[in-house]
User: Fold these one by one.
Assistant:
Number 1:
Amino acid sequence: MNPIYASRRRRDIVVRALCFAAAAFGVTWLALILFTLFYNGLAGMSWQIFTQNTPPPGASEGGLSNAIVGSLIMTVIGVGVGAPVGMFAGTYLAEYGRHDRLSPVIRFINDILLSAPSIIIGLFIYGAVVVPMGGFSALAGSLALAVIVIPVVVRTTEDMLMLVPNPLREAASALGLPRSLVIRRIAYRAARAGLITGVLLATARVAGETAPLLFTALSNQFFSVDLTHTIANLPVTINNFVQSPYAYWKQLAWSGALLITLAVLALNIGARLIGSERTAK
Amino acid sequence: MRSGKQGTSVAEMAFHGSAMEQAGSHDRARALNAFRLGDRAFYWITRISAILVLLLLGGIIVSLIVGSWPAIVEFGSAFLTTQRWAPSAEPPVLGALSPLYGTILTSAIAMAIAIPVGIGIAVFLTELCPLWARRPIGMAIELLAGIPSIIYGMWGFFILGPFLANTVQPFFIDLFAGVPVLGSIFGGPPSYLSLFNASLILAIMVLPFITAISRDVFATVPPVLKEAAYGVGCTTWEVVRHVVLPYTRVGVIGGVMLALGRALGETMAVTFIIGNSFRITPSIFAPGTTISAAIASEFAESDGLHQSSLMLLGLLLFVLTFFVLAAARLMLLRLEKKAGKQA
């Protein structure tokens, strides 16, 4: 064989092998992380986790019920506040603001907020909510989550509304429907699956957020649903338990981590299924 | 619902003619009025929400500056060049040099690992992988991106840290022992908590971002270009090197910058395993700290000047990531415009 061709072939084979190795490397990490997570998490899984509160230091029984409830409350409020705001803002960008000079600026800022470090959001809420309110609270934690939800929903809402074909809007307008109804009755309905996907993805994003809760919601050893006080939540509880010297706390941290991961994976896969259903049609 | 019913009644009235004209025009005016009000209200709700996004950014910047003002006044530009971090000294001495160094060093090492591997996986997925396996592997990589960072952190703390300290670190320490510069970079005793361990966890975390974006931009290369290159006898590597990468360069760089933005600000994956030590040592196997790790581990129990300095660290981090992310977005935007022109 021609020596130049042979060396090109050799180089090609080496690079292919490296690419293959890279893929194996990536998938191996995922498998390893999921394996240890399930192995250690399932070992401590029992009904206790869902029925008992977080134990005091050194105890050998107890669960995560207060943390689970706290996380649910804050996630629901965070998404409940953030999703509508994000959806309206996304609507403005896609429907009213297409030729507005303001829109590119908002879009750009939103993209930056989308990947801003979440600990910065925590600092912001600490300065804007915790200090004026005079203490850490579940409300502050929820608002921190809402700030993270907003850019995600803005982005998906705008993208999804942009996919709605214009003739649909024109047809509705031609029937005499006012602009707001064209959007609410026609565009929202056409983009419904995509909008739900966006909210699910945003929920998945905040479900495991830890950094912004460390100094907004803090944590609480007891069961509490009071929005003006600190509240127990899974991520911060895991954070505290991992670094503790107690074996049972570490065990609970693994179980909590497994619960969060399962929830996040379920939300992600659910979002994907709804999203692909839309494109299948 | 209500206004919808009125909408049909307006249409009916139009058909009914002169007998009902009197009553009709009255109803019609009322219905149109309701429409106009609803229309206006909806417009303003959406517009105010959009402006809220701008205010959010403004609020973040203002609250960070307000919070860090006492530290700015106290330390000035010396904050950036002081290595010592002694919040309980009298008077307190606080400097950002070691967290800044840790942030930049861990991100740099993480990117050095994640960029080639991430792009390699993207090439594998778009050029080499058999069709049936593309979707599952691509999906697995994307799910890796969705796992909360605290899971990476605790996995690094319990599993990866001990593993590295017992195998990889001693290997490098022995390998480079006695070599002038490398000997001190890879020197010192192996440690569960180190800059190197944190960098590796960061690399695993940002890998999916780089892969996902690279794969998406690789998909924008027109098949004709690739087919032409294969047609004149190029190998897969030559097609990737001389057709795919030049065509998608801007997009790939944008994706890499986006991942860098993540790595700089990542908190939970790093906090557990970096050791939180405010020292600058030549060895990457020694404990260190990053801006986000310092904030995460000290902020809740801080007050006064200490807290204000942590806020100032946060402000520095925000400025740093803002520029990186802005550059990334501008590049991706440029690519989108290019793709739009061709479509």
Number 2:
Amino acid sequence: MSTQSNTGYLIIFRGTDWYQGLSPEQMQQVADNWMAWFKRLKDEGKCAGGNPLEREGKVVSGKNKVVSDGPFAESKESIGGYFLLTVGTMDEAVAIAQQCPGLPYGIRVEVRPIAPQCPIVDELESKEHLAHA
Amino acid sequence: MLVSISSEWCKELSLEELQEVVKQNKAWYERLAAQGKIKGGQALLREGAVVTSKGSRFISDGPFPESKEAIGGTLWLDVATLAEAVAIAQTLPGLRYNTTIEVRPVAEECPTYAWARELAQQQQPAAAAA
């Protein structure tokens, strides 16, 4: 797949229980590698930013705006953090995702192209186009 | 950080409903931006890839991982408390269409460091007792 994106890619790290079974030293080593990887990508101009997320949070859902304790997904799918990549192709973004130091410990990386505009606006424009056709 | 998680609900709306939603979303976003509460954010296309230690899998038309719904976008808020972020999430116009918003604090440092310290502390008394 060679999708092009001028707006970059969000890579989302999923899994917040990967450290189970590791010693404190091993955990620290993986985190150090992760930080070094982030810094290198930034130095190379391939990453505009990123953040780790706290494990806990809230979930707001539906018409009734119900608030419950989060995260939304179970821990193996839960979002742990993200990087904002400024590379131009899906292949490059995937190649970077493949370098994630957490992969051997069960981390999954979701690679998503950033939309130039909200996809709801895209849907509206396509429906308007159909209406005028 | 607000993360919206939804199905492709907008495909089922009529032209008029869509126009209304787009108008409301725009007003919602612009109001927050004018209040200086938005630090960043991205709307995402529904395609993408999932990379694991076993390889990469491309997905062209969502939905993503094991749930029927996918992350639609993120919004990084500049607010001081989780309660304020939750209150903002509750005003999102898209909630009416069964969108779910995950509200997660951005961590100061990678939580792994905190877990490593915690684990080291737990192990220390055991080592001292041995």
